[in-house]
Amino acid sequence: MAHSEHNRPKGSGMVMIAIGILIFVFAPGYFKNDLIGGMAIIIFGFAIGGLGFYISFFKKKKTA
């Protein structure tokens, strides 16, 4: 029997973590040119990566 847990897409949190990592890799280039903009990009990358980490590892599964 198929369960809804098996049919849902997986990996959206991992994609968000990867995007956050890429933002952290490219943030120093922006940080050199614009201090405020670079800090905003670093915070945005941290937020996206943290949200992806939460979705992947800490989000509780709903019980039926």
Task: Write the SSE topology.
Blueprint: H1 4-7, H2 12-33, H3 35-58
Keywords:
78% helix, 64 residues, mainly alpha
Molecular shape: elongated
Whole-number average pLDDT? 80
- Number of alpha- plus pi-helical segments: 3
Class from helix and strand fractions: mainly alpha
Span of the ends, CA to CA: 16 Å
- Please give the radius of gyration in angstroms: 16 Å
Number of strands: 0
Regions with little confidence, pLDDT below 50 for 5+ residues: none
Binned, the helix content reads over 70%
User: H/E element string?
Assistant: HHH
Main pleated-sheet profile: none
Beta-strand content:
under 5%
How would you describe this protein?
This protein is 78% helix and 0% strand. The chain has helices at 4-7, 12-33, 35-58. Helix 2 packs antiparallel against helix 3. The model has no long low-confidence stretch (mean pLDDT 80).
